[in-house]
Amino acid sequence: MSSSFITTKDGTQIFYKDWGSKDAQPIVFHHGWPLSADDWDAQMLFFLHEGYRVIAHDRRGHGRSSQTETGNEMNTYAADMAELAAHLDLKGAIHVGHSTGGGEVTRYVAKFGQPQGRVAKAVLIGAVPPIMVKSDKNPGGLPLEVFDGFRKAQAANRAQFFLDIPTGPFYGYNRPAAEVSEGVIRNWWRQGMMGGTKAHYDCIKAFSETDFTEDLKVIDVPVLVMHGTDDQIVPFEDSAPLSSKLLKNGVLKVYDGLPHGMATTHADIINADLLAFFKG
């Protein structure tokens, strides 16, 4: 089946796409906030044509999945993924996560995927681990006021906020030399507005305040950490280098001047490097 739903133990419906031969190695894509599986269009088609089985789901509260009031935090996101992986009987899977999805991958692989022997490799692209928010333990993080500002903007006018983000920092379209795509901006807005505002609101806390340090430490499968130096959403200095050091088998690949949404704006570069890592 090319797309369907599973119903989790708490009754949440999770939408997913599943393309390609069931005998092929599966790649599972985990989207960022507040998007959906559709954010991986450029990767899903590319790797399908490379002979992989490609899977992407809408996180609870996002996209076509249930607009959940509860469970909008990393432990439940990871548990949802574990239920989907069991339902599809995934083995030797590669999990690729962008931004918030990178946190979901980290928690899932550490808590479920690796212990169950379902995961071969993982990739973190512009990902939120180890932790975003500033604290005594994480003095280089972003102040809580930044994320309070996200919540305030979303509560005041989500539709406008979800235009401002892709028009500006997400894809680096606020940079002087940027080649702006109106279609990419509209697609971001479309995906965001499909989801539930309560779930999106809660997810801001999930992606900014969850500490993935211990998860990263226990992961021993190969992990590629990819990050652009002009990431205005998840600052490079406070995430990727720290994650790669905490991982037992992590490799850091840095993209000079590329934005947070580089898997969309520079899909040719990112896809080629992903393919090399998958085959390596």
Automatic annotation (TrEMBL):
Keywords: Oxidoreductase, Peroxidase. GO terms for molecular function: chloride peroxidase activity. Its EC number is 1.11.1.10. The keyword Oxidoreductase applies. Transmembrane segments: none annotated. SUPFAM superfamilies: alpha/beta-Hydrolases (SSF53474). It holds the Pfam family Abhydrolase_1. Residues 26-255 form the AB hydrolase-1 domain. Belongs to the AB hydrolase superfamily. Bacterial non-heme haloperoxidase / perhydrolase family. This is Non-heme chloroperoxidase. It comes from Aliirhizobium cellulosilyticum.
